Amino acid sequence: MPSSAGRTARRFASPLSRALARERSLDLESLTGSGPNGRIVKADVLAAVKAAPGSQPAVSQRATRFSDAPHSLGRKLIARRLTESKQQAPHFYARIDCCVDPLLALRASAQPRLDAQGLKPTLNDFVIWAAARALRDVPEVNVSFTDAAIRSYQQVHIAVAVAVEQGLVTPVIADADGKSVVRIAREMRELVEQARAGSLPAGASAGGTFSVSNLGAMGVREFTAVINPPQAAILAVGAAQPRAVVAHGQLAVATMMTVSLSADHRAIDGAVAARWLAAFQRRLESPQEQDLW
């Protein structure tokens, strides 16, 4: 039987250090322990791993193909203005759901007359109309913040976001609170055609006091938008979709649309934003035939 002197002394090591050594194929006998009585601890194993040749993983030099599209002047302007908006204007958000079934019914009943004029107002035309009327109802939202004062606008000019190949433009429907849905629809159709053809008149995007951005046609249910300075608010409009709702204590299906108001808290308080959304909802959900024409 071999004597104890002929055996290699067992190294003292913590259970964690032994597990780490096994994972990294390290021989505990080659390590110097820094713990009590030369006990090998976790730090000893990690130090040995770090010091071992080739222990650092090779950095991949994989090439990734890409192409750069130089910024257009319009894209540079959008980037600068929206960055300034998020940095300088303390945004807050409020949203509300609107039932658009009465609106759709009104449009359907008027369709023969609309067809005779070659026109079918979009949901966004009704949204612009309702937003403009709500700004008349709650003028505290039709404002801008300046270093010296809250600037209240006497006219309602709605800027409408339109996607174009170069990015985004915001042509303005001037004095929108005094226009019918049909008139707004005519003006919007012309502005969209000009925007996408790159032939918007000079100044067509200037002077807006409030903005509307609509992604509903792309299937987006809801989103929040960045305020278009110097305005103090923008309305983000989602898709009109059938949803389950509770009406008069009963489960039903209605066509609902979620809208989100982004507001500059320096100029607009939460209660004011809530009153404006309520006015917008009331206008959108209860359109009258005379509002069309």
Description:
The structure is a single chain. By secondary structure, the protein is of the alpha+beta class. It is built from 9 helices and 10 strands. The protein has helices spanning 15-23, 42-51, 73-88, 101-109, 111-116, 123-137, 181-197, 270-285, 289-292, and strands at residues 91-99, 143-145, 150-152, 158-160, 162-164, 167-169, 172-173, 210-214, 233-247, 250-264. Helix 1 (15-23) packs parallel to helix 2 (42-51). The protein is elongated, with a radius of gyration of 32 Å. The termini are far apart. The model is unreliable at 1-8 (pLDDT under 50).
Tags for this entry?
six-stranded mixed beta sheet, Dihydrolipoamide Transferase, alpha+beta, 293 residues, disordered N terminus, 2 domains, elongated, single chain, 35% helix, two-stranded antiparallel ribbon, 10 strands, 21% strand, Chloramphenicol Acetyltransferase, 9 helices
